[in-house]
């Protein structure tokens, strides 16, 4: 960490930006849209576009809006059925609100609803990427949300922080701005600890950084929290995108951020592209390969993972599935495994020349090839 914050996500430093807006910012305590606040965001987007920046919006709020219209208790989250019904009704109102706010500033909105599967599947990921690119080329402002009417359990992102990071992957964005009800990541809870300090710059997410985050949404309206934002930051950084957590409570939050208001900025060391970019953002993993220190060090240097350096295999997966690569200090990457789980167990710890006798056929050059592997 350093005391100096990197440049804000301005049109000059970030030509294509994803802005995530949480329910607690968009929806008031009465369950209605904060129209004046939304109008200020639309004005910010118009100013950014006029300066040459393409903006994609990831907006929460459909469940909260639908719950008010349907008169559902607990903000529409008393049951899965309530949440899905609230989302179905609220998404209409949410889309209409964004269309009205953006059109008032001379912009056109497009609605895109996604589930986890839409961006986990390689072909659908590319389809979403192409759609976003075409909309932006036409001068349209895409407004995305998780498709809560059908996304349940294993096919959920679970929060729009991670959806924003994954959208950044698909859109080839340069940065992600998470507008929150706090100014960024603090060393402790600023509501209870007077000594809490805002971190201006996080170049690496360490265990100490993760310990500063707590789960849950302070407003009770959303599903995110600082822990989810750190996951989103890790996803963004793996793809070479900067990610900022900034205070969105006042009006004109994007303009305030771009003018230099205090926030927390996460900066990447490198950028991945193509298949590796898709791998970097994968949320669903089929299993885990446990690496010894030597193998972990080789992977971190960009080398392929050889079976000789694998200590254990967890999960049931097929050849070509995405697995986590776990070193002595935790997860270091992920990749497409060249063997199914049972075969991987047969050859773990074995040198290449000894694998053929166990497998009954000529072994592949690596358990996970460097071309199909990404370091996190």
Task: Describe this protein's structure.
It contains 14 helices and 13 strands. By secondary structure, it is of the alpha/beta class. The chain folds into 2 domains: 16-277, Acetylglutamate kinase-like (Carbamate kinase), CATH 3.40.1160.10; 285-375, Roll (Archaeosine Trna-guanine Transglycosylase, Chain: A, domain 4), CATH 2.30.130.10. It has an 8-stranded mixed beta sheet with strand order 3-4-2-1-5-7-8-6, with helices on both faces. Helix 2 crosses helix 4. Mean pLDDT is 88; it is low at 215-223.
SSE layout and pairings?
Layout: E1 16-21, H1 23-26, H2 35-50, E2 54-59, H3 62-70, H4 80-103, E3 108-114, H5 116-120, H6 122-137, E4 140-146, H7 160-171, E5 175-180, E6 201-202, H8 207-211, H9 226-238, E7 242-247, H10 253-258, E8 264-266, H11 274-280, E9 287-291, H12 293-300, E10 310-315, E11 322-327, E12 330-336, H13 341-347, H14 352-359, E13 373-375
Parallel strand pairs: 1-2, 1-5, 2-4, 3-4, 5-7, 6-8, 9-11
Antiparallel strand pairs: 7-8, 9-10, 11-12, 12-13
Helix pairs in contact: 2-4, 3-4, 6-7, 7-9
Question: Which features characterize this protein?
Answer:
single chain; 376 residues; alpha/beta; Carbamate kinase; Archaeosine Trna-guanine Transglycosylase, Chain: A, domain 4; 8-stranded mixed beta sheet; 14 helices; 19% strand; globular
């Amino acid at each position: 960490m350093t005391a100096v914050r990197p440049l804000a996500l301005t049109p000059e430093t970030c030509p294509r930006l994803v802005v995530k807006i949480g329910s607690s910012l968009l929806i008031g305590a009465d369950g209605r849209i904060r129209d004046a606040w939304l109008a200020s965001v639309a004005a910010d987007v118009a100013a950014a576009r006029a300066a040459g920046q393409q903006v994609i919006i990831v907006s929460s709020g459909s469940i909260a809006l639908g719950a008010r219209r349907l008169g559902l208790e607990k903000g529409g989250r008393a049951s899965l059925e309530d949440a899905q019904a609230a989302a179905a009704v609220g998404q209409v109102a949410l889309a209409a609100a964004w269309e009205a706010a953006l059109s008032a500033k001379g912009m056109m909105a497009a609605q895109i609803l996604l589930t986890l599967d839409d961006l986990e599947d390689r072909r659908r990921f590319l389809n979403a990427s192409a759609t976003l690119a075409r909309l932006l080329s036409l001068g349209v402002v895409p407004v995305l949300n998780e498709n809560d009417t059908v996304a349940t359990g294993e096919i959920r992102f679970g929060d729009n922080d991670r959806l924003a990071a994954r959208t950044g992957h698909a859109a080839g964005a340069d940065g992600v701005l998470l507008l929150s009800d706090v100014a960024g990541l603090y060393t402790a809870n600023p509501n209870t600890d007077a000594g809490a300090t805002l971190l201006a710059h996080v170049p690496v997410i360490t265990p100490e950084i993760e310990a500063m985050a707590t789960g849950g949404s302070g407003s009770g309206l959303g599903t995110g929290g600082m822990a989810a934002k750190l996951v989103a930051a890790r996803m963004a950084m793996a793809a070479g995108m900067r990610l900022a957590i900034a205070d969105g409570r006042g009006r004109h939050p994007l303009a305030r951020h771009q003018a230099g208001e205090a926030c927390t900025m996460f900066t990447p060391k490198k950028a991945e592209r193509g298949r590796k970019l898709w791998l970097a953002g994968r949320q669903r993993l089929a299993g885990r390969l446990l690496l010894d220190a030597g193998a972990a060090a080789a992977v971190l240097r960009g080398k392929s993972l050889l079976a000789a350096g694998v200590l254990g295999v967890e999960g049931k997966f097929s050849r070509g599935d995405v697995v986590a690569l776990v070193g002595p200090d935790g997860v270091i990457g992920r990749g497409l495994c060249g063997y199914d789980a049972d075969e991987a167990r047969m050859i773990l710890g074995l040198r290449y020349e000894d694998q053929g006798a166990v497998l009954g056929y000529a072994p592949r050059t690596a358990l996970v090839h460097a071309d199909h592997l990404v370091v996190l």
